[in-house]
Amino acid sequence: MPPDVFDHMEEAWKLEKNPFPAEAIRIQNGAQPYSESVFPEETLEFRKKLIRGGVRGGQAIGFLWSKGQRADTGFGKTTLMQEVAREINTDLGRVTLEKAGAKKAAQPPIAAAFSNLNNLNATGLYPVLFNAVVDLATTLDASEESVFDKARARIVEEINSNDAETVAERVRDTWATIGGTSGPLRPELVESFASGGGKHLKAELAEVSPTARMRNGYSTSTLLSPHWRRPELTTCS
């Protein structure tokens, strides 16, 4: 009689359950097995061309293409983008740029947002940008800081004040400098960010109706213009 597969999993591999998703598809914002050593050459090329290329070469958009002799090779493009985005946001790109060969003295802080088109709630540019902002305010667990939390901490350090109105004023002043002819930031979003970082901002975004997200993204795309440059992570298969 062959051994029970679950007994073998528990005894030989010391696993309580299958660590891979049953659907065999990457689940966003979930802790799943990942090892860049499976595709080391492709991972290094991705870091150099899309991440370092976006920072150093002014590359506005890049394509991650996995083309085999007959069809898509399916080596894990979505997983690679999500894991590298998570790696970037852990320390604002320091390790990622080092792995890509950038010199330490010339590394700007960067951040990455993951968002994608689907057939449910992200069928156009505005909802995709909305979801990207939500991603920047999201963490895997309570012990981590979101990108917006890190941004607020940097502002607090720069202005030497944790006062919400002072933080909000710095955000508005900065936007007036870099925003050009773009419209003003939504005051409720700025106030939420200034008072509580990513957690308060995400709570404010949760109140936005699906219609507003679809029609104009609730004007959250302007929140994707912080002090840092960021590479665009784009997949095409």
Descriptive report:
The chain is built from nine helices and no strands. The N and C termini lie far apart (44 Å). The protein is globular and about 70 Å long. With 237 residues, the chain is an all-alpha fold. Helices cover 48% and strands 0% of the residues. The longest helix has 20 residues, at 187-206.
Calculate the terminal CA-CA distance, rounded to whole Å.
44 Å
Which radius of gyration do the C-alpha atoms yield? 20 Å
**Helicity, in percent?**
40-55%
Run of helices and strands:
HHHHHHHHH
- The proportion of strand residues reads under 5%
Overall mean pLDDT: 80
Query: Helix count?
Result: 9
Structural class: mainly alpha
| Number of strand segments | 0
Broad shape: globular
How would a textbook summarize the main sheet? none
| Low-pLDDT residue intervals, each spanning 5 or more residues | 224-237
Task: List the keywords.
single chain, 237 residues, mainly alpha, 9 helices, 48% helix, 0% strand, globular, disordered C terminus
